[in-house]
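Practice problem: predict the structure.
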Amino acid sequence: MKQLVLNGLRPSEAARIAREGNQGAASLVPQATPQLRVVHADDSDGVVIALAGPRASATALERAAKMLDGSSCEQIVGHLFEEHSIVWVWTEVLAPLLNKIGMRWEQEQRGIEVEHVLSAAVEHQLRVVHTALNDPVNARPVLLACARHELHTLPIYAIAGALAEKKITSRVLGARLPAESLIDAAERIGPCAIVVWSQQRGTADETVWDSFTGVRSGTVLMAAGPGWVDELPNDVIRSVSFADTLITLAAAAGSS
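Answer:
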């Protein structure tokens, strides 16, 4: 039944077919291209899932996440990264789906476990892309961190993964990074750019920028995320979109 639901059938129809014991039922579902064969530990043949366009991909991902099937989520996300750029996958599939699940949690106080399963799968696949980079084009890395009170790390891993696709190396310092630690890291590695992510209003701390008065000349300072709502110093760039962030950071790294 799980395989049939992932493959596009309504749960009621999938349950009926499963009760009938039709082992070849998955092959009866019309397939579109591209496709992904998801293999589970107890299923050597797996099941083919249609991933035609962002809507179908998001539907397959949401169904897998609702089943708390992290393995299938990882396989679907990994396949999408192989077929499309991370920018496309993030903006067209992942970000809208994560926002949808997050809105459901805010409105109904249900589904946080679904968000956690999906987020963990996405972060793992982004880490794979990020750490696989060899021979980067930039000697000075991009430094990525969350604001002092920010817990949402997934967006900075998305930035790191998208930069890696452009052969731009970065360092991810994770959630809730104190300004003092960020300054120490910047002095240690001399980054070409420093990005501080704030997901929600109240997590951003504008005073962090006061600490960069002695930062290396030419280092780009960027406030990313919707949490930055107050005025910023003149030398701090406010990110307006995922694509805009990557364009600015690529320029800072000396890449077109």
